[in-house]
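Entry:
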Amino acid sequence: MRLAGKIAVITGAGSGFGRGIAEAFAEEGAKLVIADIDEKRAADVAKAIGSRAVAKTADVAKKADVEAIVRTAVSTYGGLDIVVNNAGITHKNQSLMTVSEEDFDRIYAVNVKSIYLMTLAAVPELEKRGGGSIINTASTAGVRPRPGLTWYNGSKGAVIAMTKSMAAELAPRNIRVNAINPVIGETGLLEEFMGVPDTAENRAKFVAGIPLGRMSKPTDIANAAVFLADPASSFITGVALEVDGGRCI
């Protein structure tokens, strides 16, 4: 198993991409902290995985909660090797002029500040294990932004820039930092991203811009995350891997 003996925390792991990553990591032998703001979803995922997973309810925009996630990994399993900063939110696809200040602040707190908070909490523990892997869920929106999601796009552009800078600064500590850029996917946020009802007709309009002809699935993102967490990718850092069916070509 590719992640046997590794200890990982995954935020936003109660559904969507995060759940897919958690399930894939478990299949590869990792021990997991399933962190999510939704207590029931986190518990359901941990229960489904079994003895190698523990649930932790947390708001990743709050320092105390993020520190508690890391403490849970250390107290339960004895350390930390892998961090997946997957938790994220968006605003509904709409004019940049109509997004509320409250929504803007929350997007940057969850999508950007959370990575800052997790870095402060996790890096000392990763160092104790001789290094590790940090994986940030960014987005193709940070590479090829489109109208309607301007402020969300900006938050993901920040994640990509932070990933590269973190990679350069943490390399001497043997901590690799990479990002995954999913294209629009089959998750609970789909209608928010589209800004219209989730119908076959509306999906087709978005799929038309993806050369491989479909949206992303949690398994697509999970496979990329396993690779970036696997010691087999030990010479890869600072990459923002586009898992997008060719969307960014």
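The mean pLDDT is 95.
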